[in-house]
Every structure is written in structure tokens, then in C-alpha cells.
Amino acid sequence: MADEIDTLIRHRVDRLESTVQILVKWTDDDIPQSWEREDFIQKIDPQALYTYWEDLGGRKEVTGLRLYHIFKVKAKGWAKGEIRYHCQWVGYSPKDDRWEPEEKVVNYAPVALADWKVREAARRARVAARKAAAQADNQ
């Protein structure tokens, strides 16, 4: 496949945006090496990204970045009297997920939150369809 990663070669840090780009060697030799956004790599081959950072000693230690971007909102919950969202961070594996206050997610990751809402609506529709089918089968 054209979008399969062979090797993550090196990275560069944009300190103004607190983002990282990584130079990718693709499995298809006809595709030249290219600088790709870290979140894109995390979407297509998360394990390659996690291994890259682990081999270098950890993303935080290597990049020095202290501002994190939400990669994906995974769930909605309630704690300490407030709505919270379970978030995965760009460049970090699910073991580093954290619950964040609603206000923070709304303000800093509206696209990730909107994506979660679409996924959640689809999930709820599937559950409702299964329940309706099960009820129809029982009648």
C-alpha cells in the first residue's frame, strides 16, 4: 500500500505551535520520503509512532514540548460535579490517556470533540437498531 510506513527517520519540532513533523520513508520506493504531521502518522500507524518515541527515550523528553494536543476524544463521563472527556494525546499511546474537563476540551479541541460526537451518535444508532431487531425477533 502507498501509505504504509517503512521507517520513521527523524523529527522536527515547531515550538510556536507545539507540534512535531516526522520524516517518513514509505514502503513503496516510488514514493519519496516526506515530512508528515505527527497526528497523521498516529492515524495510519500508531504503533510505529509509539515505538519511535519509546526508542528515543520518550516524546516529552526528546521534544521538550509541554503543551499537548488532543488526538482523540474517547468517552464522556462525570466526576467531581463536572462533565469530563477521556482524551488521547497526539504522540502518546492510550496508556497515557487522561480525563479532561469539558471546558478545556471545548476550547482547545473542538474538532476532536465534534468527531467524538459523530462517532457516539453512530454508536447509539447501532445500539438502538440492535435493540429494535432483538425486540422484533422476540415477538
Automatic annotation (TrEMBL):
One of its GO terms (biological process) is chromatin remodeling. Residues 3-64, 65-128 form the Chromo domain. InterPro entries: Chromo-like_dom_sf, Chromo/chromo_shadow_dom, Chromo_domain. It comes from the Eukaryota. Transmembrane segments: none annotated. Component of the NuA4 histone acetyltransferase complex. This is Chromo domain-containing protein. The lineage of its organism: Eukaryota, Fungi, Dikarya, Ascomycota, Pezizomycotina.
